[in-house]
Write a structure and sequence with these properties.
The chain has five helices and six strands. By secondary structure, the protein is an alpha/beta fold. It has a single domain, classed as Alpha-Beta Complex (Lambda Exonuclease, Chain A), CATH 3.90.320.10. Strands 1, 2, 3, 4, 5 and 6 form a six-stranded mixed beta sheet that branches. Helix 1 packs antiparallel against helix 4 and helix 1 crosses helix 5. The termini are far apart.
């Protein structure tokens, strides 16, 4: 009889948050606490619905694609990786698939967005048995589509981050806070980081 897996299931959002501030997954898994819904979180949900409606009319040419089928709000999961997530949009062509995330953020595509796209690319490849060599981030405030090439380095970062998060959970060790203190101002967990306030 096969032993049940003791691997902790994680989400793509956990990976994104780990890259943004490693304390967020700590507060979610090790020290489960209530968090404050921020204005930015609420605005993001509202923007998501509006963007999806507009996205249905967007031409694939804006992604540099000639053809493809759009799958909105698709849930992806890998039992092998213990990883799951709900992707904003997946464009599937005859030869490849392309994850797309909508971001109501200013300042361009950051490292945490790239990790998120890479994780969705890995999940989409497994689910659709086709390559996902790149993805896109649609920046809502500027109405800009940014191509994100999914490199071997970013794929390795996904696997390494999964291991790091699981080790942090197992060890129950509070990670260092983000070095970008501006992120703390609107963080839903700021009440719990007394050491930086």
């Amino acid at each position: 009889m096969e032993e049940p897996s003791t691997q902790i299931d994680l989400t793509v959002t956990d990976l994104k948050q780990w890259s943004y501030c490693a304390r967020i997954p700590f507060y979610r898994y090790v020290l489960p606490v209530d968090f404050a819904r921020t204005y930015k979180m609420q605005r993001g949900k509202t923007a998501q619905a509006a963007v999806e409606a507009l996205e249905r009319r967007r031409r694939l040419k804006e992604y540099g694609l000639r053809e493809g089928k759009r799958l909105f709000g698709i849930s992806l999961r890998s039992r092998e990786l213990g990883l799951a997530g709900k992707l904003d949009l997946l464009v599937v062509t005859g030869a490849a698939c392309f994850p797309v995330e909508f971001k109501d953020t200013e300042g361009g595509v950051r490292k945490n967005h790239r990790v998120q796209i890479a994780a969705y690319a890995i999940l989409a490849e497994a689910a659709f048995d086709m390559p996902a060599p790149e993805g896109f981030v649609y920046l809502v405030p500027t109405d800009e589509v940014v191509r994100v090439v999914v490199t071997a380095e970013e794929r390795t970062r996904v696997h390494a981050s999964l291991a790091e998060i699981r080790a942090m959970i197992a060890d129950e060790m509070l990670p260092e806070p983000t070095t970008v203190r501006a992120r703390c101002d609107a963080c839903e967990y700021q009440n719990y980081c007394a050491d930086i306030w």
